[in-house]
Write a structure and sequence with these properties.
The protein is an alpha+beta fold and 259 residues long. The protein has helices at residues 12-20, 54-63, 95-105, 108-118, 123-136, 159-169, 173-179, 246-258; strands at 2-3, 24-31, 36-41, 70-72, 92-94, 183-187, 194-198, 210-218, 222-231, 234-243.
């Protein structure tokens, strides 16, 4: 089912979205400045969110007030795959560095470490915190089973719910400062080993109006993206789930609404 605002019924924006809508399961695009919906398709369809999940993991870490705390990497923290920073057991990092790695590189060992640390050694305790926060934000069709975005059990969300989460997260200056970065370098505190993480968001380097936010991919979720574009008086947030030709279609969609 396709939903188009009457005001956009005959615009070139709408024609662009109609042309590419076959390439994604669900999409929602909102003009944050005008506080109005630009376009949506099946925004309440329950789907796998993949690593878009890490937005919740990151915002809980940021709001914990522990960003300058030191986290010691354990064997349990490393038991994830496939995108990892490959930390060594016993290495110590500031929590803020793990948040950067989780959001920029989408490093699963970083997200797993955040969850275990903030859950006081119990990852499921942190997952419960994620679900409590989701309910508070009105994410009625979301259930988290892990902090990384793996297709485990009933780990699911919707484009509409993920938009709510992201609208909340971007109210935080620290969150915004992280998600716009193309790369980030940091050292283990005790070994001085240097790590450099590069963004998985291919739009950041090539589109000057892009200021985040997160990519995702699993076999079940397909390619996913939450992108924020800001230029002059326009501030647009877009959530795309299970997208074919993710980068070309994201660029087409954002160019249409930002021109």
């Amino acid at each position: 089912m396709l939903f188009i605002l009457p005001a956009l019924a005959l615009t070139s924006d709408t024609k662009v979205f109609q042309k590419i809508q076959k390439d994604f399961d669900s999409i929602i695009v909102k003009d944050l400045g005008q506080k109005k919906l630009i376009f949506s398709k099946d925004e309440n369809q329950i789907l796998r969110p993949a690593s878009l999940t890490k937005i919740m993991t990151a915002i809980l870490a940021i709001e914990s007030g522990k960003m300058n705390n030191v986290v010691t990497i354990t064997a349990e923290m490393k038991k994830v795959e496939p995108t990892i920073s490959n930390f060594k057991v016993g290495e110590k990092f500031y929590l803020k560095d793990l948040v950067h790695a989780a959001m920029i590189k989408s490093a699963n060992d970083a997200a797993n470490s955040i969850a275990i640390y903030l859950g006081n050694g119990n990852k499921q305790k942190f997952v419960s915190m994620m679900n409590v926060k989701a309910k508070k934000l009105g994410m009625k069709n979301t259930n988290f089973t892990n902090p990384c975005g793996f297709d485990i059990g009933n780990h699911a969300s919707t484009a509409s719910d993920l938009l709510k989460l992201t609208e909340y997260a971007i109210k935080n200056k620290t969150f915004n400062s992280i998600v716009k970065l193309e790369k980030y370098a940091f050292n283990a505190i005790n070994t001085k080993s240097r790590y450099v993480v590069h963004s998985s968001n291919k739009l950041l380097a090539h589109e000057p109006y892009i200021i985040g936010i997160k990519t995702g991919y699993t076999n079940e979720a397909g390619a996913c993206l939450i992108a924020r574009a800001k230029s002059n008086n326009k501030d647009v947030l877009m959530v795309m789930l299970n997208v074919n030709n993710r980068w070309p279609n994201a660029k087409i969609a954002l160019n249409a609404v930002m021109r």
